[in-house]
Design brief:
The complex is a heterodimer of chains A (about 220) and B (about 220). Chain A is mainly alpha-helical and about 220 residues long. Chain A has 9 helices and no strands. Chain B has one domain (about 30-215). Classes of the chains: A mainly alpha (about 220), B mainly alpha (about 220).
Chain lengths: ~220, ~220
């Protein structure tokens, strides 16, 4: 069962190593490929280049939207939060520190807006039930049908088990494993230390492994 | 990884860009100018109270003692400022744990340094002030801290999406620490109880105030 874990995560999200070395080579599809252009775009926007905002949107919006969709399971809500996130970044553009990373900042704003919205009870965030619907990407089209079904079931189970984990462990795990942030970036988003995030994500991983290992 | 779960509608992009265009936001140069103005006003307010009360008392205490204690307090306040007010190369600032550590450790650090100074110059603890004197100094230092705290609040308002309470606490400690430095220059009483209540307690009070108002003042607003 454990051998299928990476494949299960491939349904709706990519497979990523739990802790990524910062010095590791950058591969195709790796979000770090975007880091430099997105940071450069934000630096230019912060410096007063208004045209850079469109570029920033193009580089950042799909990723933030993906995160918000996975969290809210509500397309309208995710679009609304994405718009608010980008407008917050626009309003605070002069406060962006040149040389710093824009991705953790953007994720932190999106997460804060989402949590505040949940607290206000404007919308109910559905997190735990299933991964089917518009939130899922198809798995590899050339995979055998039985493997797809097994992986889909495992993916569903993982989501349910993930939802049962303590909040701090789940969030750390999701940011690293699902959203592709580095441990350092996740630590920034959560306002804590790298060591704490490593520990939380590792505990989540071990808990999931323990649960899935039982079957 | 970076592909969305479902494609973003093109009209959303146009809507976001139009909304941004309709609400101009200051760029870095303007924000830097506003920051410097706010800091200037905050420091000026602190100095105004300091000089209105007579400035530094340099005659009552031995110059070496004054240099040692004040130098140490300036170093502690500078360290608190570096941790609590500077964002350490990240737009999100430092970790909440570090900010809280700065908020909680600054006051005790100042007191500990004063105790080191008075242990080296025991003659400086000749006068034990009454409670009223403690409270007068507390009020003076609190008055001096108010300007810098308001300035820091203006600079960092509605900007912290992660740990606004910790940010508020750290900024309160920073304002309190610099006020404590000036209060200690002004007041020659080096008795531990007086220093604790009159010069150091405002650091903790402003840290507490910062934490209390942090969510509302420093937290992100939608």
């Amino acid at each position: 069962m454990l051998a299928a874990l990476p494949f299960a995560f491939a349904i709706g999200r990519p497979v990523r190593p739990l802790f990524r070395a910062r010095s590791a080579g950058v591969q195709e599809g790796d979000p770090r490929r975007e880091t430099a252009p997105v940071d450069a775009a934000m630096e230019r926007y912060g410096a007063g280049d208004d045209a850079a905002f469109g570029e920033l949107y193009d580089l950042l919006a799909p990723r933030i939207f993906g995160y918000l969709m996975r969290q809210t399971r509500d397309r309208a809500r995710a679009e609304d939060l994405l718009q608010q996130t980008l407008l917050q970044m626009h309003a605070a553009r002069g406060r962006f520190i040149p040389g710093s990373q824009v991705t953790p900042w953007a994720f932190a704003i999106a997460r804060r807006l989402m949590i505040d919205g949940m607290r206000r009870g404007k919308r109910e965030v559905l997190r735990t039930e299933g991964t089917d619907g518009e939130g899922s990407e198809p798995a590899a089209p050339d995979a055998p049908a039985d493997e797809l079904v097994e992986a889909q079931q495992l993916g569903d189970r993982l989501q349910k088990e993930l939802a049962r984990l303590p909040e701090n462990q789940r969030v750390a795990f999701e940011l690293i494993k699902q959203e592709g942030l580095s441990v350092a970036q996740a630590a920034e988003v959560l306002g804590t230390t790298v060591t704490a995030v490593k520990l939380r994500a590792h505990r989540a991983y071990e808990a999931l492994r323990g649960i899935l290992g039982e079957t | 990884m970076t592909s969305p779960l479902a494609p973003l509608p093109p009209q959303l992009r146009a809507r976001v860009l139009a909304a941004a265009q309709s609400r101009p936001a200051p760029a870095r140069a303007a924000v830097t100018r506003a920051t410097l103005v706010a800091l200037g006003v905050g420091v000026a307010a602190l100095l105004l109270v300091f000089f209105a009360l007579g400035g530094a008392d340099t005659k009552t205490r031995p110059p070496a003692f004054l240099a040692m204690t004040s130098g140490g307090w300036v170093a502690i306040a500078a360290a608190a400022t570096w941790i609590g007010a500077a964002r350490g190369g990240s737009t999100l600032g430092r970790s909440g744990a570090l900010l809280l550590a700065a908020a909680l450790a600054t006051g005790p650090g100042l007191l500990a340094w004063m105790l080191v100074g008075t242990s080296l110059w025991p003659g400086t603890i000749g006068y034990h002030a009454p409670m009223r004197a403690h409270l007068v100094c507390l009020a003076i230092v609190a008055a001096m801290a108010t300007g810098p705290f308001l300035a820091l609040a203006a600079i960092r308002r509605a900007s912290d999406p992660v740990h606004p309470r910790a940010t508020g606490a750290a900024l309160g400690a920073v304002a309190g620490a610099w006020a404590g430095v000036m209060g200690d220059l002004h007041c020659p009483v080096s008795d531990a109880l007086h220093v604790a209540i009159g010069h150091v307690a405002p650091v903790l009070i402003f840290a507490a105030v910062g934490a209390l108002v942090g969510r509302r003042v420093f937290g992100l607003r939608d």
